[in-house]
Amino acid sequence: MTQILYTYISEEHHSYLLKKVAPKFSYDFQKKILKYRRWQDAQLSLLGRMLLWSSLKKLSKDLCIEDVRYNSYKKPYFENENIKFNISHSGNMVVCVTTENSEIGVDVEFLQDINIEDFKAQMTPLEWQNIISSNNIKDAFFNYWTQKEAVIKAHGMGLSIPLNSFEVIENRTKIKENNFFLTEIDLDVNYKCHLASSDKINNSLIDIKKVDLAMSLS
User: Fold this and answer.
1) Of 142, 135, 81, nearest to 108 (Cα)?
2) pTM, entire model
3) pLDDT by residue (tens digit) across 1-21?
4) Using an 8 Å Cβ cutoff, are 131 and 116 in contact?
């Protein structure tokens, strides 16, 4: 089973989160989030940890957040454990995905107005042509962008892999000998989200749940 938890930041609950939820994590992490100048950034980081913590409890895994390690490209993982996870946030939303065995990556993006031409170099010629010939250019752009970002997160080498070095065709792509499969995750009409995995995931085995902060903190 692949589990996706997501939630939205809340200024109303920020003080409570800092006082009651942040102390569940390491002192170093608490210091890190307090350094953010914007409360939104601090809470996005904290909620990512909270969602992962909730996911591990649902999986009945005897793991804690402090067991997280990072590879040389900053991809988080659990050592000697088949649980894979990834976290993404954009705008007011944060998303956490957990699964077993398959390498996984998730990317969510708020559908904001941007100068899409600035990102032409990140696309292959075919991808760019598909974007500019689309009836909805912004949607087409963010569709490719979240797919490609999810793929490099699943691969584990992040932005050291140029986005234009691989091409997404019909929800799949390949980086050297590594195949990746893509699934669009419908969370909010104002956001685009894609899941990338090293094994094809059956949609019926994806469990998506919105976490209501007001209810979870009560």
Assistant:
1) 142
2) 0.95
3) 899 999 999 999 999 999 999
4) yes
Distances (CA, A) of 161 to 73, 154, 165, 194, 197: 11, 12, 7, 18, 16
**Closest among 175, 172, 218 to 195, alpha carbons compared:** 172
Rg for the chain, CA atoms, rounded? 17
Helical ranges in the chain per DSSP H: 14-16, 27-34, 39-58, 125-132, 137-155, 213-216
Residue 113 is encoded by which pair of tokens? Answer: 């107005």
Confidence at 81, pLDDT banded by 50, 70, 90: confident
Q: Closest by alpha carbon to 138, among 194, 192, 196?
A: 192
State residue 65's pLDDT score. Answer: 78
179, 172 Cβ separation under 8 angstroms: yes
CB atoms within 10 A of CB 103: 19
Residues 114, 95: contact at Cβ < 8 Å? no
Helix (H) / strand (E) element for 167: namely: none
pLDDT digits (tens, 9 = 90+) for 112-152: 999 999 999 999 999 999 999 999 999 999 999 999 999 99
Residue 170: burial class (beta carbons within 10 Å; 0-12, 13-18, 19+): exposed
Q: Which structural domains are found in the chain, ordered by start?
A: 2-216 (3.90.470.20)
Average pLDDT over residues 91-104: 95
Interatomic CA distance for residues 77 and 104, integer angstroms = 11
